[in-house]
Design goal:
By secondary structure, the protein is α+β, with helices and mostly antiparallel strands. The protein is built from 2 helices and 6 strands, in the order αβαβββββ. Helices cover 25% and strands 32% of the residues. The protein is elongated, with a radius of gyration of 18 Å.
Length: 118
């Protein structure tokens, strides 16, 4: 399952940042071309997060629309889906500039950051 590997990647990033604090919510940005099914990702995340500091954390997904720059005419297009074609000239020779990202944008952790100095 595609979502399981994504969920695991998100979990690893979140745990690295959390440093043993409990995670309450994770905001992620997912490019449209990743074709992630939000429900499937939430389900997969609940599975991989079990027993970790992120167990029960809420996943907040933001989908990033795909976009590209045409190598033929140079115009920038939103790319709603496959095939990835230039809106201006119809060329399929388009360089992707957005749509494949998978980023952990923000983490919400239990309690405010403690007063310890960094
Ligand atoms: Zn073009």
């Amino acid at each position: 399952m595609h979502e399981l590997s994504i969920a695991d990647a998100v979990l690893q990033i979140a745990l690295t940042h959390a440093q043993d604090r409990r995670i309450e919510a994770i905001e992620i940005k997912v490019g449209h071309l990743r074709q992630v099914v939000p429900d499937a990702l939430e389900f997969a995340f609940a599975l991989v997060a079990e027993g970790t500091e992120a167990a029960g954390a809420e996943l907040i997904l933001e989908e990033v629309p795909a976009a590209g720059v045409c190598r033929m005419c140079g115009s920038e297009s939103e790319l709603p889906g496959f095939p990835l074609a230039c809106e201006a000239c119809g060329s399929l020779d388009v360089e992707l500039i957005r749509g494949e990202e998978l980023l952990v944008d923000a983490l919400t952790m239990e309690g405010a950051p403690s007063g310890r100095s960094r």
